[in-house]
Write a structure and sequence with these properties.
The structure is a homodimer of 213-residue chains.
Chain A: H1 19-33, H2 40-47, H3 51-57, H4 61-79, H5 83-86, H6 90-107, H7 109-116, H8 123-148, H9 158-170, H10 194-208
Helix pairs in contact in A: 1-2, 1-7, 4-6, 4-7, 4-8, 6-7, 6-8, 6-10, 8-9
Chain B binds a DNA duplex (30 and 30 nucleotides) through residues 8, 10, 12-13, 16-18, 39-41, 49-53, 55-57, 60-61.
Chain lengths: 213, 213
DNA sequence: CACGTTGTCGACCGAACGTTCGGTTTACGG
DNA sequence: CCGTAAACCGAACGTTCGGTCGACAACGTG
């Protein structure tokens, strides 16, 4: 063992924080207890520091929420700009968007979870709700296009099926828990990562239903 | 007009409350702002009375939550006891349960909304979460039966499709708003009530998917 | 080894929280 | 018109809330 790897001479602090690592703790506690149900004292206890230390890194509780929601919204909107979402038939683009949204949801699970539970009690929450409405409208337009193309059944309202399908996708945050292996890591050929397999199931169920054929 | 139907002689109080009518107001505010985000002052303001008046009717904030959650859980479980849920093929029973759950969700929309947002910060919330888990397990078992019957596709895990389909159903609370007409009221023959029509769409999408045929 | 930076702490603040209490108003049967 | 019970109120309780402040320890750099 090298001298530089010796144990810290002071045992008083087990971990030092910066804004990012503190946000990680905050998001975990927010998702467990809900944003309104979490006090700064709760956050401090979970992080192993005092309340005042938290204010050294962030402006306050609502600032932490904003940082978390941005981490969810930015990648969700980014999906709509991908080549697969802008070129091809409406059905292909819709499939791409749905599949990628599942993958983003899994990759940013805690942040998306928080986003989906926002109620609108603060400015930050109302801002997030507004962005969600914009997002939903864009996808609903895409579904409408696919119906007019004749690729989707026309006996159901496009707005309705968009809501139901996204309701199904979003409900994943209620139960999905990642296993130990990271998606990027080496994996035998032909074995798809868990997020992709989940997206397969969502697409299969959405497009073809669960009835046996 | 009978004398007993005369307008109240005093205009100072616009409404008198009992436990039930107070619960109605509380559930509305709880769903708007979230349980943790609602203060007793908020409830008092919404009801047009003072905080202390509320304690004349209920034991406290958590008591109101318990009353609301019971109003959701009892009819949800009652569906599982109905004849359509206990007799016939597993597919028929599953269809019946899904359809009726949609109808109950619409009929008790505010209470079910509250149930689905419970986080587990109090004893009452943990009790509700426990009952929800029991409910999910019962339906998942039914889905497994339907798969073994050969009625549902067997390339997807029954537990997974139960979660996804119920995620879709439960998401209805996020956007569905009842129109003016009540479901029980007179309606021309052949016109199904809104809740039944919504259930039709949910069943169609779940079983046959949204792809055009 | 002095220095500024970074992270932490305990003590504290005013406001808001859920709840309690003693007393007042209202509706109504006798 | 009186008596009573239900409904209500204003004021206050003790606690917890989100947030502030000044001091201090650890550390990399000159």
């Amino acid at each position: 063992m090298l001298a530089s790897m010796a144990a810290p001479q002071s045992a008083r602090r087990v971990q030092r924080y910066d804004t990012a690592s503190l946000l990680q703790v905050a998001v975990r506690v927010f998702t467990e207890r809900g944003y309104d149900g979490t006090s700064m004292e709760d956050l401090a206890r979970a992080a192993g520091v005092t309340k005042s230390s938290i204010y050294h890194h962030v402006d306050g509780k609502e600032h932490l929420l904003r940082l978390a929601l941005e981490r969810a919204l930015n990648p969700l909107f980014a999906v709509l700009e991908e080549p697969g979402a802008t070129k091809g038939t409406a059905l292909d683009r819709l499939e791409h968007v749905l599949r990628r949204e599942v993958e983003v949801l899994v990759a940013e699970l805690p942040h998306v979870t928080l986003l989906l539970r926002v109620r609108g009690n603060t400015d930050t929450e109302r801002w997030a709700l507004q962005r969600r409405r914009e997002f939903d409208a864009l996808v609903a337009a895409l579904a409408g296009e696919a119906v007019r193309e004749g690729a989707l059944r026309d006996d159901l309202d496009p707005a309705l099926i968009t809501r139901l399908v996204f309701g199904m996708i979003n409900s994943v945050v209620e139960w999905y828990r990642p296993d130990g292996a990271r998606d990027g890591e080496d994996r035998p050929d032909g074995v798809r990562p868990p997020a992709a397999r989940l997206a397969d199931a969502v697409l299969a169920l959405s497009l073809d239903g669960l009835r046996a054929r």
